[in-house]
Amino acid sequence: MGATMSLEIIRQEMREALTADAAAIDRLVAAAGLDDGARQAITADAVRLVEKVRAGLSTGMLESFLSEYSLSTTEGIALMCLAEALLRVPDTTTMDDLIEDKIASARWLEHFDAANPLLVNVSTLALTLTGEVLRDTGAGVTGMVRNFVQRLGEPVIRGAVLQAMKILGSQFVLGRTIEEAANTARKAEAQGFAYSYDMLGEAARTEADAKRYRTAYAEAIAVIAARCTADKVRDNPGVSVKLSALHPRYEFAKRGRVMNELVERALALAVMARGANMGFNIDAEEADRLDLSLDIIEAILSDPRLAGWDGFGVVVQAYGPRAGYVIDWVAELAERLDRRVMIRLVKGAYWDAEIKRAQVLGLDGFPVFTAKAATDVSYVANARKLLEKRNRIYPQFATHNAHTVATVLYLAKQLGATTTEFEFQRLHGMGERLHQILADEHGTKTRIYAPVGRHADLLAYLVRRLLENGANGSFVNMIADRDVPAAQVARDPFESVREPSRITGPDDLFAPSRRNSRGFDTTDPLAMAELDETRAGFADRLWSAAAANAVEGDAVEYFRIESPATGELVGEAIGAGPQTIDAVLAAATAAAPDWAARPVAERAAILRRAAELYEANAAELYVLCTREAGKVLSDAVSEIREATDFLRYYAVEAERLREGVPLGVVTCISPWNFPLAIFTGQVAAALVAGNAVLAKPAETTPLIAARAVELLHEAGVPRDALQLVPGRGGTVGAALTSDPRVGGVVFTGSLPTAKAIDRAMADRLDAAAPLIAETGGLNAMIVDSTALPEQAVRDILASAFQSAGQRCSALRVLYLQEETADKVLDMLLGAMDELAVGDPAVLATDVGPVIDTRARDKIDAHIAAHAARGAVLKQLATPIGGTFVGPAVLKVAGIGELTEEIFGPVLHVATFKANQLDKVIADINAAGYGLTFGLHTRIDARVEHVSHRIKAGNIYVNRNQIGAVVGSQPFGGEGLSGTGPKAGGPHYLPRLSRPLEQTPPSTANNVLSGLSVGFAIAAVDQVRVGYDKATARTLKQKMPGPTGESNVLETHPRGIVLCLGPDEESARRQAQLALAHGNAVLVVAYGGPRIAEELGKDGAAIGGVERRLSPAVIEAGLNVDAIMHFGTPEALRPWRQALARRDGPIVPLIASEADAGRLILERHICIDTTASGGNAELLAGISAGT
C-alpha cells in the first residue's frame, strides 16, 4: 500500500512539473551533481573524443551528408521536402512537377568536394545535372537543345532522383523487411553490437492501420526470437513499439477506450517478447500522451504473465522537465513488481512540434526546454538518476554526443557502475566511429536502434532524422564540419544553460501589442480535474436573457432554451416587443454621444478588462457553450479564446488607428454557431470605435450573449451604450436594421438574410450607412498526389466534421486527385469510424449535435436525396435523443451540383485528373462563394499557382481550413460569402467610423443623355478585357503567428469600378483612387472620355463615356464590382437601392474618399510550413540535440 501511495505521489509531482521553466533548470543543475572540476574533466575527455572521431578515416557517410546539406541551406530543405514526398507519388506528371519544384532552384554544384564521402558526391553530381537540365530553358540553339533534353530526359531524371532517395533512405533504414534487416545486422552483431528493431510507419489513423502495424510487430518479434539465444535480455536483440501505431485514438480524451483496447494489444506483443527473452521498448511520443502512457505501462507491467521478466523497456525524453519524475515512477513500479525495467534515455524527438503546439494552444509555458543546453543538462541529471537506481533500472543511454558520452562514463565511474550494468545506443547509420571508440577504450556495449520498413513507409522517420541531425546546433552536424573547433563541438552545456531563450513564449505570441489569449490544456489531468469540479457548479444553473430597457406590458415572445444534445432546460429568453425596441433605440441614441466622447484609451482599457473577466469566468462560459450551443470542450475553449482575442486586438487597433467620428448607433446581429466569439467581435469593434451598440443574438443562443453583456458592463461599458435585444430575426432583427436612428449594421448569417438587411437599410437608413456582412460559403479543398494521406485525412476530418460541421469555414467539397483518391478515401472512411458522436459534455465526444430540429431535418433531407441515387459513401450512426446528424460523405461530380451550403457534418467528394487542376479551380470560383479554401500539396509552385487563382478570403495550405486566429488570420470572404472587411484584421475598425475631416458631397446633377443597358454592358466588357490582361496589383503584409506557420494578408483590386461623379472632378478623383488600388475603371459622367484618356496613357484599364447611367441598369445586373458616387444622401439612395435589389453578391457603394478602402479585397494565406515533417526553420536555429 505504501508503494502504491508512493506511485501516486510521484505522479502528482510529475503533473505539477509540466512547464520547462527556470526553476526546472535550477533543479536539474543541482541534481546533476557536477562541480567545476568534474565538468572540466568531462569536457576535456569530450574534446579528446571529438578529435579522435575526426582523426579516423571518416566521420561516417551520413554525418558528412547531413553536415553538407544542413537545414540552413536551400539544398538541405529541398532534399528534406523531396525525400518526404517523392516516393509516395504514383503518377509521373506530378512526380516530375515535384522534382522540378525542389531541384531546379537550388545550387547543388557548390556542395561538390573531392574530400567528401562517396554518398555526398554521387548525390551532388546527380542533383547538379538534374537541376541544370530542369533550370536552363534559355533562348537560341542552346535553349532549344536544353528543352529537347528536358523533354526526352524526364524518365531518366525521374528514375535517377527516385534511386537517389532510395539510397539515402537505405542509409537510415536497416532493411525493407524484418528478415532483410536481421540478415544485415549479422555483421555488426558479430562485432559485439546488439539491435533494437523499429517497424516504421505513420501513427495509425484507422483501425485497419492499427491492425497492420500490430501484425508487423508480431512478425518482427517472431523473426527476431530465433536470434535470441543469450540468457540475458541485454545480450539479445529487441523491438521498439509505438503505442500510436497500435491504436488510432491513442489520446488523453479517449482514455477509456485506450485502456480497454490498447493495453491488451500492447500486452499481447509484450508476452510474445517475454517468451523470446528479448527487449521490448515502449517508445516515447508527444508530451500530451505522457500521463496516459504511464497508465498503459503500469497496466501491462502488472500483468502476471510478465512476472520475472526484465526485458520491458520505457523510453524517457530528457527535453521535458518531467523526465526525472518518470524515472522515479518507473523505478518505484519496478520495486513494487520486483522487476528490473530498461529505460532508454533520449534527448527527445518532437521538440519543434511541442513548441508549436504550446504556442497555438496558448498554454502557460512549454512542456520542453527551449534551449539545447538545458536539454543536455537534463540528460546529465537524469543519467545520474538512472545509474543510481540501477538495481531496478537497466540504463540505456541513446546519444551521438561526445560530451554526453563523456559525462555518462564519468558518472558511471563515480557511482561504481560497471559496463555490464548499462549500455549505450545509437541510430543505425550514425555515430559508428564514436561508439566503436567507446567499445575499444571502455568495453561498453552499444545497441543500434534500427528502423525497418519499405521505402514508402520510411518517409516520416527519414525526415525526422534529417531535421534533428541536420540542424545547425546538432552534434552530428558539427562533428562532421571540421571548421568547427573540437572545443566548440564538445562545449560544456552548463556554461550556457541559463542563457535567455530565443523562443517566443505562448503568452507573448503577439507581444508587445497584446497578450495572447489564455488557453486550456484538455490533456492535463490536473487542469481537467479542477475544471470538472468548477463546471459541476453550473450543471443545473438556469440563465436568462432579456432586453435591459424592456417596457412593461409590451407584446413580447418567450423562448425556452434547451440543450440540443439532451433537451434539458438551460434557461429562458424574452424577445423584445415593438415598444421595447423603440425604447432601446432611444436609449442607445441618447447614450451614444457620451460614449463617443470618452477617450479611445479609456474605451480600449474597458475592452481589456472585459477580456480578463471572460478568462476569469471561462468555466461558466465553457458550460454555456456546451449546454446551449452543443459544443464539445475543445470547441468551447477555442470560442472563449477567440472572444478574448477580439477584445484585446480591437483595443490595440483603436489606439493604433487615427480616431474617427463614430457612426452613432450600430446594430450587431450574431449567429448561433459562434454565439460568444462572433458576438463579442462585433460588439467589441463597434464599441471601441465609439458607437453605442444594440446586440441581437441568435434566438437559439441568447443566454451566453446575455452573460457576455453582463461582463462587458462589469468591465465598464455603460448599460445604455451596450444593450442586448433578444428576439427573432424577422421581428427584432428587421426593426433594428430599418430604423433611421441606426448608423450601421454588422451581420453574420445567411446570404438571403444579409440581402434582406441590405434592402431594408437602402430604403430606411442613411445611404452611406455601412453593412458588414459575413455570409458563409461553399468551401472546397484540393488534395493532390504529393500530399501525405495521414495529414490530409486528419485535416479533412477537422475541417468537415469538427463542431458538427457548423462553421462558416467548414469544408463542404473535397477534390481528390484520381491517382491517390482511393487510398485517401479509404483512410478517410476508416478514420470516420473512430469518431464518437454524442453528448458534448463528455470529453471523449468528437461530434456533438446540430443546433435544432429544423437544421437536422434539412441536413437529413439532403443526405436522403443522395442516398436515393446511391451517392452516400458513408454515414455514422447517431445516439438516441438530441438533434444529432451522423457525419456523412457523399459522392458528387463537382461543386456545381450544390446550389446552397449544407450547414452540418456533410462532406461532398469529387475526383480530378492531374491535368485538370485549373478546371477544378475555375469550377470552385464559378460557384460564386469565396470564404475558405484548402490545399494539400508538397509542390511550392502549385501553392503559388492555386493561391493566385482561387477567389477565397482565407486560403489554408497543408492544414485544416477552420479556426482562424484573430490578428494572425483575419477572417472573411468575398463574392457571395460577404462584404469585407475581414474580422480580426487591420481594415475592420475604420468601417465603423467616419474620418474627422470629410469632403462635402457634390450637389451636381448629371442631366446627360442616358446610357442604354446594351451599351453599358459593352463598355464594361471592353474595360474588363484590359483588366484581365493586366498584372493584378497585390500588396502583402506578414502577420504574426506561431512558429512553423506562414501567415500573409494580401490585398487585391476589387475588379471593375463604375465611377459616376456626379461632377467631372469627383469622377476624376474616383478614377484615380480606383486605379491606384489596381482596379479597372469605367467613368460614366461629365468628362468621362477626357478622364479615360488622361489616366489611361500608361496603359491603365479605363474607359469613359459622357452619358448618364440609370440605377435601373445596375438593378438589372450590370456586372461591376463597385460603384463610386460622391453625391448627396438623396442622390445616393437610388443607387444604394438598386444595388440592394439585384441578385448576387452585395456590391459596395463608395460615397466618399474615406471609403476608398472598399476598393480592395483581402485574402489571407496560411501555410503550415512543418507539413513535410517538421519545423526546419526553427530547428536550423536551435536544436534539442542528440
Folded structure, characterized:
The chain is α/β, with parallel strands linked by helices. It has four domains: 292 residues, TIM Barrel (Alpha-Beta Barrel); 250 residues, Aldehyde Dehydrogenase, Chain A, domain 1, CATH 3.40.605; 198 residues, Aldehyde Dehydrogenase, Chain A, domain 2 (3-Layer(aba) Sandwich); 159 residues, 3-Layer(aba) Sandwich (Rossmann fold), CATH 3.40.50. 46% of the residues lie in helices and 14% in strands. The chain has 41 helices and 33 strands. It has a ten-stranded mixed sheet with strand order 20-21-22-19-18-23-24-33-27-26, sandwiched between helices. It has an eight-stranded parallel barrel with strand order 1-2-3-4-5-6-7-8, surrounded by five helices. A five-stranded parallel sheet has the order 15-14-13-16-17, sandwiched between helices.
Topology:
Blueprint: H1 2-16, H2 22-32, H3 36-55, H4 61-68, H5 74-85, H6 92-103, H7 118-135, H8 140-172, H9 178-184, H10 186-190, E1 194-199, H11 207-225, E2 238-241, H12 255-276, E3 279-282, H13 290-301, E4 312-317, H14 323-337, E5 341-346, H15 351-361, H16 372-388, E6 393-398, H17 402-415, E7 423-427, H18 432-442, E8 446-452, H19 459-470, H20 475-479, H21 486-489, H22 525-536, E9 543-545, E10 557-562, E11 569-575, H23 578-597, H24 600-616, H25 618-629, H26 633-656, E12 661-662, E13 665-669, H27 677-688, E14 692-696, H28 702-715, E15 722-724, H29 729-736, E16 744-748, H30 751-764, E17 771-774, E18 779-783, H31 789-801, E19 811-817, H32 818-832, H33 853-867, E20 872-875, E21 888-891, E22 906-912, H34 917-926, E23 932-936, H35 940-949, E24 954-957, E25 993-994, H36 1013-1029, E26 1035-1038, E27 1045-1053, E28 1056-1059, H37 1064-1076, E29 1080-1084, H38 1088-1095, E30 1102-1105, H39 1111-1115, E31 1122-1124, H40 1129-1141, E32 1149-1150, E33 1160-1168, H41 1176-1181
Helix pairs in contact: 1-14, 2-16, 3-17, 5-6, 5-19, 6-8, 7-8, 11-12, 12-13, 14-16, 16-17, 24-26, 24-28, 25-26, 26-27, 30-40, 31-32, 37-38
